[in-house]
Design brief:
The structure holds 2 protein chains of 2 kinds. Chain A is mostly helical. Chain A is about 75% helix and about 0% strand. Chain A is built from 6 helices and no strands. In chain B, strands 1, 2, 3, 4, 5, 6, 7 and 8 form an 8-stranded mixed sheet that branches. The chains are: A mainly alpha, B alpha+beta.
């Protein structure tokens, strides 16, 4: 989700970090590239693919789109997972926007 | 002497209170005017956001219209109703208008649902952009998903029209990706947000090729190259289009 938001905002530094984190977590490069390029990959679970789309919809702060997708995500995740997803998206959006201000191009 | 000093202090205190009250009233008045101006500005920005991206509206307000144009990569979608002229000749104007409005609404919803923005309705045609308003690295996938959603929406709409004894609509959709100049164009009296460049023209001409290839959706190599491999594409024979020297290969999508 962090990688999707970094890619959507064009934040190269955060995207590089996200790729490194995915590799450390054992996600192969083909799967991570496919997930970041197309918001889904065959090697990921249904929930993971769903969350990538949700992360993308949080990029431009359009409440209607965020709420519509959030309801769909909420119905398919356990409550703690859903809250974690909201937290990750919020944090990733903040970090990627701030990194554009502090990281040299 | 002490009484005189006390009186002077009271006068000074009363004067200070008066000044403070006047200043407070003035501050309240200015705050109210500032709030009203902010509400007006927000309303203006919301109205403008229906016609141009928020970032463009912000730049327009700070830098003026000339500064609000930039080169960017977008995917253009051009849709057109097949045999519209004969349809228009057969139907009464109010019926035709109702059919077209229902068509526009359903197609616009399908485009918006997939992060696209309808730029304009050109007669019975629809021009939409993906990646023009905000950067969108997934614009090819979005545009093809929107085209597929338009196909499904039209099938549903045709069932509704059939139930009323009205003729079905058929559409052609062309998709192409490339660089454009995006920004506000027009005169001082009338401006609109538009994407200018060969990309948009090619999308329109690829749409016209749907008749040649007897299909409803066609996309170019520029779209296919960045497309999710799970889409099922089938190439069509290279065909010439106006403005491009070599015949181009296009792809249908299932």
């Amino acid at each position: 989700m962090f990688g999707v938001i970094a890619r959507g905002l064009g934040d190269a530094a955060a995207l590089s970090e996200a790729r490194a984190m995915l590799a450390q977590a054992g996600v192969d490069t083909v799967t991570s590239a496919r997930a970041l390029d197309h918001l889904g990959a065959p090697g990921l679970t249904d929930s993971e693919n769903l969350l990538l789309g949700f992360a993308r919809d949080t990029l431009w702060y359009q409440p209607a789109a965020i709420q519509r997708r959030a309801r769909a995500v909420r119905d398919r995740l356990a409550r703690p997972e859903f809250i974690e997803a909201l937290g990750v998206c919020s944090l990733a959006n903040a970090v990627c926007r701030l990194s554009a201000a502090v990281v040299e191009p | 002497m002490a009484e005189w000093g006390l009186g002077l202090a009271l006068v000074a205190l009363a004067g200070s209170i008066g000044l403070w009250l006047r200043q407070r009233a003035r501050t309240s008045e200015l705050t109210a005017r500032l709030r009203a101006a902010t509400v007006d500005l927000q309303r203006l920005q919301q109205s403008c956001a229906r016609f141009a991206p928020a970032t463009v509206v912000d730049r327009l307000l700070t830098d003026g219209a000339e500064a609000a144009a930039e080169r960017k990569e977008i995917t253009a979608l051009f849709a057109d109703v097949v045999a519209y002229t004969s349809l228009a000749e057969r139907l009464e104007a109010p019926v035709l208008a109702r059919i077209l409005n229902g068509y526009y609404q359903r197609m616009s919803d399908a485009i918006s649902e997939h992060s696209g923005h309808v730029s304009t309705f050109i007669g019975d045609g629809i021009l939409a952009y993906f990646g023009a308003f905000e950067p969108n690295p997934w614009q090819s996938d979005d545009a093809v998903r929107a085209a597929l959603a338009m196909r499904r929406a039209l099938a549903g709409y045709n069932r509704e029209l059939g139930a009323e004894g009205l003729p079905p609509l058929a559409i052609g959709i062309g998709l192409h990706r490339g660089m454009v100049l995006a920004g506000l164009v027009g005169t001082r009296e009338r401006m609109e947000y538009a994407c200018i460049g060969r990309t948009v023209n090619v999308a329109a001409r690829v749409q016209a090729l749907t008749r040649t290839h007897d299909t409803d959706i066609l996309l170019t190599d520029a779209v296919r190259e960045r497309l999710d491999p799970t889409f099922q594409l089938a190439p069509r024979p290279a065909a010439p289009i106006k403005g491009i020297a070599e015949p181009i290969v296009t792809y249908t999508v299932a």
